[in-house]
Amino acid sequence: RLEIILLLAPIVCQAANILMHLAMIVRSDTLKICIQHMEIDWRRIDNSTEHDIMTKHVRYSHNLTIACITVMYTGALSYSLIMPLMAGNTINEFNETLRPRPFPGTDIFFDVQANVVYEIVFTINFISAIFHYTVITAVCNLAIVLVSHTCGQIQVVIWNLENLVNELTKNDKDPDVIMKRIGFIIRRHDRLLKFSANIEKALKEIFLMEVVSSTLIMCFIEYDIIIALEQSITNRLEMTTYVLLLSSFAFNLFLYCQFGEVLMEQCQQVGKVAYMIDWYKLPSKSQLALIMIINMGEYPCKLTAGGMMDLSIANFASITKTSLAYFNMMRTMG
């Protein structure tokens, strides 16, 4: 049974990876629309303040991507390369020298201890792990870039709202010009809302697979750690590897939930800013136009896992609790 449990985590991981890859292919048209949308937004930047706001979010997305790559590949290399190489050989009851298995369960199908077979399996497993974590980091980077761009556009809309009254009243613009300015802000707000809807459409299946797979994988890794402790395994490298793997999957899942939380808060902030500006200094018709923005702030954009669960910090805590509940169930059954 322990052998099966050790095998389940890699199987779930690889299956989720394949499904995420297929989901990206299926949603390629929507992703293309999102990328084209971003390109148009950058071309429409017409002042240094908006450029600085967008550049700030680009730098943030780059730093977050580097952190994601570092965490994920550290866990991958530790599990797929360093741990098998550093584990050392063992001797069984038949006085045979056994090399560490490159992948759990491989000895079920064939003799991995054979010289050529061992090297082939080890190489295939390592390449597969690199491919797997490359897809994970690519999806994570895609989500980071899209959500960061949306947040940047939201901040641009907020900046335009905050400067609306000061610019127009200072220059004594006529009501028609004021309405055109407000119309411009509303169109930009509507555009970013449509962009957010496309992000949700493109990534909701990927988020669902990430939530389900991460919940199960964290459960299996927790079980592996407890089994190792109960068997008095003092191999620090193995324990460190399991902890790194657990941290990498938890960190990746936390990022997705954080994206959903930030996006929702940013969308709500637009409505709050529209209410907090000196709107009473504007003409009556212009004041009524701001109601549209305030009302839309009551319905913020959300990222969901397959349309079934909102991605938020509160739900991240719920997912973690679910993983621990599955872990306790496995311990009871074991």
TrEMBL record:
Spans traversing the lipid bilayer: 6-26, 64-87, 120-147, 206-229, 241-259
Molecular function, one GO term: odorant binding
Membrane topology: Multi-pass membrane protein
Lineage: superkingdom: Eukaryota
Localization per record: Cell membrane
Cellular compartments per GO CC: plasma membrane
Sorted UniProt keywords: Cell membrane, Membrane, Olfaction, Receptor, Sensory transduction, Transducer, Transmembrane, Transmembrane helix
Gene Ontology biological process terms from the UniProt entry: signal transduction
Protein name, as recorded: Odorant receptor
Organism: Campoletis chlorideae
Highest classification ranks of the organism: Eukaryota, Metazoa, Ecdysozoa, Arthropoda, Hexapoda
